[in-house]
Amino acid sequence: MSKPKVGFYWCASCGGCEEAVVDLAEGILDVVAAVDIVFWPVALDFKRSDVEALVDGELAVCFINGAIRSSEQCEMVELLRRKAKAVIAFGSCAQLGGIPGLANESSRAAVMDEAYKHAPSVDKGNTVEPIPHITVPEGKLELPVLWETVKTLDQVIDVDYYLPGCPPPVELIGNALKAILSGQLPPKGTVLAPDIALCEHCDRRETKPDKLSVKQFKRPHLTAVDPKECLLAQGLLCLGPVTRDGCGSPCIKANMPCTGCLGPTSNVRDYGAKALSAIASTAGANDEKEMEKILAGIVDPVGTFYRYSLPASFLHRRYQPTARGGK
Ligand code: SF4
Ligand code: SF4
Q1: Does ligand 2 lie within 6 Å of residue 238's CB atom?
Q2: Which tops the pLDDT comparison, 243 or 125?
Q3: Least confident piece of the model among 41-45, 89-93, 203-207
Q4: pLDDT at 322
Q5: What is the C-alpha separation between 162 and 152, in angstroms, rounded?
Q6: Which of 67-76, 117-126, 143-152 comes out lowest in average pLDDT?
Q7: Domains in the chain and their CATH numbers?
Q8: Is residue 323 pLDDT above 90, yes or no?
Q9: Is residue 107 in contact with ligand 2, taking CB distance under 6 Å?
Q10: What is the pLDDT of residue 177?
Q11: Whole-angstrom Cα distance, residue 78 to residue 68?
Q12: Distance (Å, whole) CA 327 – CA 318
Protein backbone atom coordinates (compact mmCIF):
# COMPACT_ATOMS: atom_id res chain seq x y z
CA MET A 1 0.00 0.00 0.00
CA SER A 2 1.37 3.43 -0.84
CA LYS A 3 2.21 5.78 2.00
CA PRO A 4 0.14 8.94 2.64
CA LYS A 5 1.55 11.99 0.91
CA VAL A 6 2.38 15.02 3.05
CA GLY A 7 3.43 18.58 2.20
CA PHE A 8 4.98 21.43 4.19
CA TYR A 9 4.97 25.06 3.10
CA TRP A 10 5.83 28.45 4.60
CA CYS A 11 4.43 31.90 3.97
CA ALA A 12 5.05 35.06 6.08
CA SER A 13 7.04 33.54 8.95
CA CYS A 14 10.55 33.38 10.40
CA GLY A 15 11.28 29.72 9.63
CA GLY A 16 11.05 28.61 13.27
CA CYS A 17 8.10 26.33 12.51
CA GLU A 18 10.19 24.50 9.90
CA GLU A 19 12.95 24.19 12.51
CA ALA A 20 10.42 22.67 14.91
CA VAL A 21 9.78 19.85 12.41
CA VAL A 22 13.51 19.17 12.27
CA ASP A 23 13.50 19.27 16.12
CA LEU A 24 11.56 16.01 16.03
CA ALA A 25 15.18 14.70 15.88
CA GLU A 26 15.20 10.91 15.38
CA GLY A 27 11.39 11.09 15.40
CA ILE A 28 11.64 12.63 11.92
CA LEU A 29 12.87 9.22 10.71
CA ASP A 30 9.60 7.64 11.87
CA VAL A 31 7.75 10.34 9.96
CA VAL A 32 9.79 9.75 6.82
CA ALA A 33 9.18 6.00 7.16
CA ALA A 34 5.42 6.48 7.56
CA VAL A 35 4.71 9.15 4.92
CA ASP A 36 5.93 10.37 1.55
CA ILE A 37 7.00 14.00 1.88
CA VAL A 38 6.21 15.28 -1.60
CA PHE A 39 6.61 19.04 -1.03
CA TRP A 40 8.89 20.79 1.48
CA PRO A 41 10.75 23.57 -0.36
CA VAL A 42 12.72 24.74 2.68
CA ALA A 43 14.41 21.34 3.05
CA LEU A 44 14.08 19.48 -0.24
CA ASP A 45 14.25 20.53 -3.88
CA PHE A 46 10.59 20.56 -4.86
CA LYS A 47 9.02 23.09 -7.20
CA ARG A 48 5.55 24.55 -7.60
CA SER A 49 5.18 22.44 -10.77
CA ASP A 50 5.51 19.29 -8.58
CA VAL A 51 2.43 20.39 -6.63
CA GLU A 52 0.55 21.36 -9.81
CA ALA A 53 1.19 17.83 -11.15
CA LEU A 54 -0.63 16.22 -8.18
CA VAL A 55 -4.30 15.36 -8.61
CA ASP A 56 -6.73 17.25 -6.37
CA GLY A 57 -6.87 15.75 -2.87
CA GLU A 58 -3.74 13.64 -3.45
CA LEU A 59 -1.96 15.05 -0.37
CA ALA A 60 -3.30 13.46 2.81
CA VAL A 61 -2.30 16.57 4.73
CA CYS A 62 -0.45 19.83 4.19
CA PHE A 63 1.15 21.76 7.06
CA ILE A 64 1.20 25.47 6.23
CA ASN A 65 3.04 27.91 8.47
CA GLY A 66 3.14 31.69 8.24
CA ALA A 67 0.62 34.46 7.79
CA ILE A 68 -0.60 35.49 4.33
CA ARG A 69 0.32 38.90 2.96
CA SER A 70 1.34 38.53 -0.67
CA SER A 71 -0.23 37.47 -3.96
CA GLU A 72 2.24 34.58 -4.24
CA GLN A 73 1.43 33.24 -0.78
CA CYS A 74 -2.27 33.42 -1.61
CA GLU A 75 -1.80 31.53 -4.91
CA MET A 76 0.30 28.83 -3.22
CA VAL A 77 -2.09 28.18 -0.34
CA GLU A 78 -5.08 28.08 -2.71
CA LEU A 79 -3.19 25.51 -4.82
CA LEU A 80 -2.21 23.46 -1.74
CA ARG A 81 -5.79 23.62 -0.46
CA ARG A 82 -6.99 22.00 -3.71
CA LYS A 83 -4.34 19.28 -3.53
CA ALA A 84 -4.74 18.41 0.19
CA LYS A 85 -7.49 16.49 1.94
CA ALA A 86 -6.58 18.25 5.22
CA VAL A 87 -4.82 21.56 5.82
CA ILE A 88 -3.21 22.33 9.16
CA ALA A 89 -2.50 25.94 10.14
CA PHE A 90 0.90 25.28 11.64
CA GLY A 91 2.10 27.78 14.25
CA SER A 92 0.98 31.16 15.57
CA CYS A 93 1.44 33.08 12.32
CA ALA A 94 -0.81 30.75 10.29
CA GLN A 95 -3.30 30.38 13.13
CA LEU A 96 -3.56 33.97 14.41
CA GLY A 97 -1.28 36.16 12.26
CA GLY A 98 1.72 35.94 14.59
CA ILE A 99 4.54 38.44 14.85
CA PRO A 100 4.31 39.36 11.11
CA GLY A 101 0.69 40.33 11.86
CA LEU A 102 1.92 43.27 13.94
CA ALA A 103 2.55 44.93 10.56
CA ASN A 104 -1.22 45.59 10.61
CA GLU A 105 -0.36 48.44 12.97
CA SER A 106 1.14 50.21 9.91
CA SER A 107 0.14 50.83 6.33
CA ARG A 108 1.80 49.04 3.44
CA ALA A 109 3.24 52.40 2.31
CA ALA A 110 4.84 52.96 5.74
CA VAL A 111 6.33 49.44 5.71
CA MET A 112 7.81 49.99 2.22
CA ASP A 113 9.12 53.45 3.17
CA GLU A 114 10.87 52.05 6.23
CA ALA A 115 12.35 49.06 4.38
CA TYR A 116 13.48 50.88 1.20
CA LYS A 117 14.07 54.49 2.27
CA HIS A 118 14.84 54.82 5.98
CA ALA A 119 16.40 51.52 7.16
CA PRO A 120 20.06 52.00 8.23
CA SER A 121 21.16 49.46 5.62
CA VAL A 122 19.65 51.46 2.72
CA ASP A 123 21.67 54.04 0.74
CA LYS A 124 20.69 57.53 1.88
CA GLY A 125 18.33 59.15 -0.63
CA ASN A 126 17.20 55.86 -2.19
CA THR A 127 13.82 56.12 -3.92
CA VAL A 128 13.79 52.73 -5.64
CA GLU A 129 11.12 50.27 -4.50
CA PRO A 130 10.27 46.85 -5.93
CA ILE A 131 7.53 46.92 -8.57
CA PRO A 132 5.43 43.89 -9.50
CA HIS A 133 6.06 43.93 -13.28
CA ILE A 134 9.02 45.02 -15.37
CA THR A 135 10.13 44.30 -18.91
CA VAL A 136 13.86 43.84 -19.52
CA PRO A 137 15.67 42.76 -22.72
CA GLU A 138 15.50 39.13 -21.54
CA GLY A 139 11.72 39.22 -21.07
CA LYS A 140 9.03 40.11 -18.56
CA LEU A 141 9.79 39.78 -14.83
CA GLU A 142 7.21 39.51 -12.08
CA LEU A 143 7.37 39.98 -8.32
CA PRO A 144 4.63 39.07 -5.82
CA VAL A 145 2.39 41.97 -4.75
CA LEU A 146 2.58 42.83 -1.04
CA TRP A 147 -0.93 43.20 0.40
CA GLU A 148 -2.07 46.12 2.52
CA THR A 149 -3.11 43.75 5.32
CA VAL A 150 -1.62 40.60 6.90
CA LYS A 151 -4.17 37.76 7.14
CA THR A 152 -4.43 34.50 9.00
CA LEU A 153 -4.49 31.32 6.91
CA ASP A 154 -8.20 30.71 7.55
CA GLN A 155 -9.01 34.23 6.34
CA VAL A 156 -7.75 33.07 2.92
CA ILE A 157 -8.51 29.33 2.63
CA ASP A 158 -10.52 26.70 4.50
CA VAL A 159 -8.46 25.21 7.36
CA ASP A 160 -9.10 21.82 8.99
CA TYR A 161 -6.90 21.95 12.13
CA TYR A 162 -4.64 24.32 14.03
CA LEU A 163 -1.30 23.53 15.68
CA PRO A 164 -0.54 26.54 17.90
CA GLY A 165 2.77 27.93 19.13
CA CYS A 166 5.74 30.04 18.11
CA PRO A 167 6.92 27.51 17.11
CA PRO A 168 4.54 24.60 17.83
CA PRO A 169 5.97 22.41 20.62
CA VAL A 170 7.61 19.24 19.31
CA GLU A 171 5.36 17.03 21.45
CA LEU A 172 2.23 18.56 19.90
CA ILE A 173 3.64 18.06 16.40
CA GLY A 174 4.38 14.40 17.19
CA ASN A 175 0.86 13.89 18.59
CA ALA A 176 -0.70 15.53 15.54
CA LEU A 177 1.30 13.34 13.15
CA LYS A 178 0.28 10.22 15.09
CA ALA A 179 -3.39 11.27 14.98
CA ILE A 180 -3.18 11.89 11.23
CA LEU A 181 -1.48 8.58 10.52
CA SER A 182 -3.95 6.62 12.67
CA GLY A 183 -6.92 8.49 11.18
CA GLN A 184 -8.07 9.35 14.71
CA LEU A 185 -8.56 13.03 14.20
CA PRO A 186 -10.82 15.25 16.29
CA PRO A 187 -13.65 17.31 14.73
CA LYS A 188 -12.72 19.81 12.03
CA GLY A 189 -11.63 23.19 13.43
CA THR A 190 -9.97 21.73 16.54
CA VAL A 191 -6.81 23.32 17.94
CA LEU A 192 -4.52 20.34 18.51
CA ALA A 193 -3.43 21.25 22.07
CA PRO A 194 -4.93 20.99 25.57
CA ASP A 195 -7.94 23.25 26.07
CA ILE A 196 -6.91 24.64 29.48
CA ALA A 197 -4.88 27.65 30.59
CA LEU A 198 -1.11 27.43 31.07
CA CYS A 199 -1.44 28.43 34.75
CA GLU A 200 -3.17 25.10 35.46
CA HIS A 201 0.07 23.13 35.10
CA CYS A 202 2.58 25.84 36.01
CA ASP A 203 5.18 24.87 38.64
CA ARG A 204 4.63 28.29 40.31
CA ARG A 205 0.87 27.95 40.55
CA GLU A 206 0.86 27.45 44.33
CA THR A 207 2.45 30.88 44.76
CA LYS A 208 -0.19 32.68 42.68
CA PRO A 209 -2.56 34.49 45.07
CA ASP A 210 -6.32 34.14 44.53
CA LYS A 211 -6.58 37.91 44.38
CA LEU A 212 -3.67 39.72 42.79
CA SER A 213 -2.97 43.35 43.57
CA VAL A 214 -0.17 44.55 41.30
CA LYS A 215 1.15 48.02 42.14
CA GLN A 216 3.74 48.19 39.36
CA PHE A 217 4.19 46.27 36.10
CA LYS A 218 7.85 45.49 35.61
CA ARG A 219 9.93 44.42 32.62
CA PRO A 220 12.01 41.26 33.12
CA HIS A 221 15.30 42.81 31.99
CA LEU A 222 14.93 45.71 34.45
CA THR A 223 14.20 43.76 37.62
CA ALA A 224 15.54 40.86 39.68
CA VAL A 225 13.11 37.98 39.10
CA ASP A 226 12.43 35.45 41.85
CA PRO A 227 12.85 31.99 40.24
CA LYS A 228 10.09 30.32 42.27
CA GLU A 229 7.30 32.84 42.81
CA CYS A 230 4.43 33.37 40.33
CA LEU A 231 5.68 35.92 37.79
CA LEU A 232 2.40 37.81 37.67
CA ALA A 233 2.47 38.16 41.47
CA GLN A 234 5.91 39.77 41.00
CA GLY A 235 4.39 42.34 38.62
CA LEU A 236 5.71 40.73 35.44
CA LEU A 237 3.25 40.56 32.55
CA CYS A 238 2.78 36.80 32.45
CA LEU A 239 -0.09 35.83 30.13
CA GLY A 240 -0.34 32.28 31.52
CA PRO A 241 -3.89 32.85 32.85
CA VAL A 242 -5.26 33.39 29.31
CA THR A 243 -2.90 31.24 27.21
CA ARG A 244 -3.49 27.66 26.11
CA ASP A 245 -1.45 24.95 27.80
CA GLY A 246 0.69 22.44 25.90
CA CYS A 247 4.17 23.94 25.62
CA GLY A 248 5.66 22.61 28.89
CA SER A 249 6.21 26.23 30.07
CA PRO A 250 9.76 26.71 28.72
CA CYS A 251 9.57 30.49 29.23
CA ILE A 252 8.43 30.26 32.86
CA LYS A 253 11.14 27.67 33.53
CA ALA A 254 13.66 30.14 32.11
CA ASN A 255 12.31 32.82 34.51
CA MET A 256 10.58 34.71 31.71
CA PRO A 257 6.87 35.55 31.58
CA CYS A 258 4.61 33.83 29.06
CA THR A 259 3.96 36.11 26.08
CA GLY A 260 1.01 34.03 24.86
CA CYS A 261 2.29 32.19 21.78
CA LEU A 262 -0.08 29.22 22.14
CA GLY A 263 -3.00 31.61 21.81
CA PRO A 264 -6.38 31.41 23.49
CA THR A 265 -8.42 28.49 24.75
CA SER A 266 -11.55 27.66 22.77
CA ASN A 267 -13.93 29.77 24.88
CA VAL A 268 -12.09 33.01 24.01
CA ARG A 269 -12.87 34.88 20.78
CA ASP A 270 -10.33 37.72 21.01
CA TYR A 271 -7.10 36.79 22.76
CA GLY A 272 -5.81 40.35 23.18
CA ALA A 273 -9.06 41.65 24.65
CA LYS A 274 -9.17 38.74 27.09
CA ALA A 275 -5.51 39.24 28.08
CA LEU A 276 -6.02 42.99 28.50
CA SER A 277 -9.02 42.48 30.77
CA ALA A 278 -7.25 39.74 32.78
CA ILE A 279 -4.16 41.87 33.38
CA ALA A 280 -6.10 45.08 34.06
CA SER A 281 -8.10 43.23 36.72
CA THR A 282 -4.87 42.46 38.60
CA ALA A 283 -3.95 46.15 39.01
CA GLY A 284 -4.32 47.10 42.67
CA ALA A 285 -5.40 50.72 42.22
CA ASN A 286 -7.45 52.72 44.70
CA ASP A 287 -8.39 55.50 42.27
CA GLU A 288 -8.24 56.44 38.60
CA LYS A 289 -4.94 58.30 38.93
CA GLU A 290 -3.23 55.33 40.52
CA MET A 291 -4.71 53.05 37.84
CA GLU A 292 -3.27 55.27 35.11
CA LYS A 293 0.14 55.15 36.79
CA ILE A 294 0.10 51.36 37.09
CA LEU A 295 -1.09 50.82 33.50
CA ALA A 296 1.58 53.23 32.21
CA GLY A 297 4.03 50.45 33.14
CA ILE A 298 2.69 48.45 30.16
CA VAL A 299 5.04 49.93 27.58
CA ASP A 300 3.59 48.52 24.35
CA PRO A 301 -0.05 47.41 24.88
CA VAL A 302 -0.69 46.19 21.30
CA GLY A 303 2.66 44.39 21.14
CA THR A 304 2.00 42.89 24.57
CA PHE A 305 -1.60 41.73 24.27
CA TYR A 306 -1.84 41.17 20.48
CA ARG A 307 1.75 40.04 19.92
CA TYR A 308 0.65 36.90 18.07
CA SER A 309 -2.97 37.61 17.19
CA LEU A 310 -3.67 41.08 15.75
CA PRO A 311 -4.95 39.81 12.32
CA ALA A 312 -7.26 37.31 14.08
CA SER A 313 -8.63 39.93 16.49
CA PHE A 314 -11.87 41.88 16.20
CA LEU A 315 -9.72 44.94 15.48
CA HIS A 316 -7.88 43.09 12.69
CA ARG A 317 -5.71 46.12 11.93
CA ARG A 318 -5.23 49.83 12.60
CA TYR A 319 -8.06 51.78 10.94
CA GLN A 320 -6.95 53.29 7.66
CA PRO A 321 -9.45 55.43 5.79
CA THR A 322 -7.31 55.30 2.64
CA ALA A 323 -6.80 51.50 2.52
CA ARG A 324 -8.69 49.82 -0.32
CA GLY A 325 -10.36 46.45 0.31
CA GLY A 326 -8.97 43.69 2.51
CA LYS A 327 -5.81 43.18 0.56
S1 SF4 B 1 0.75 33.71 35.94
FE2 SF4 B 1 2.53 32.80 34.90
S3 SF4 B 1 4.00 32.31 36.55
FE4 SF4 B 1 2.00 32.68 37.52
S5 SF4 B 1 1.08 30.64 37.70
FE6 SF4 B 1 0.35 31.49 35.74
S7 SF4 B 1 1.80 30.79 34.18
FE8 SF4 B 1 2.76 30.47 36.22
S1 SF4 C 1 5.27 29.83 28.01
FE2 SF4 C 1 3.88 31.07 26.74
S3 SF4 C 1 5.21 32.17 25.26
FE4 SF4 C 1 6.44 30.50 26.24
S5 SF4 C 1 6.23 28.76 24.79
FE6 SF4 C 1 4.59 28.53 26.35
S7 SF4 C 1 2.78 29.58 25.46
FE8 SF4 C 1 4.59 30.23 24.29
Answers
A1: no
A2: 243
A3: 41-45
A4: 60
A5: 11
A6: 117-126
A7: 5-99+148-182 (3.40.50.700), 108-147 (no CATH), 198-296 (no CATH)
A8: no
A9: no
A10: 86
A11: 11
A12: 14
Between the CA of residue 170 and those of 86, 109, 154, 186, 242, what are the distances in Å? 20, 38, 23, 19, 22
**Residue 195 CB partners (closer than 8 Å, separation 6+):** 244, 265, 266
225 with 272: CB under 8 angstroms? no
Quote the ligand 2 centre to 231 CA distance (angstroms): 13
Tell me the HSE value of 307 on the side-chain side, using a 13 A CA sphere. Answer: 18
**Residues in Cβ contact with 211 at an 8 Å cutoff, skipping those fewer than 6 apart:** none
Of 80, 88, 71, which Cα lies nearest the Cα of 41?
80
For residue 128, which phi and psi values (nearest 5 degrees)?
A: -80, 130
What pTM did the predictor assign?
0.93
Query: How many angstroms separate the alpha carbon of residue 215 from the centre of ligand 2?
Result: 24
Kindly state if the Cβ of 92 falls inside 6 Å of ligand 2.
no
Q: Is the CB of 238 under 6 A from ligand 1?
A: yes
CB atoms inside a 10 Å sphere around CB 71: 16
Residue 319 has a pLDDT of: 81
Q: What is the pLDDT of residues 299-319, one digit of tens each?
A: 999 999 999 999 999 999 988
Give yes or no for residue 258 CB within 6 A of ligand 2: yes
Instruction: Report the run of H or E that residue 148 belongs to, with start and end.
Output: strand 146-151
Give the pLDDT mean for 101-120.
94
What is the C-alpha to C-alpha distance for residues 280 and 110, in angstroms, rounded to an integer? 31
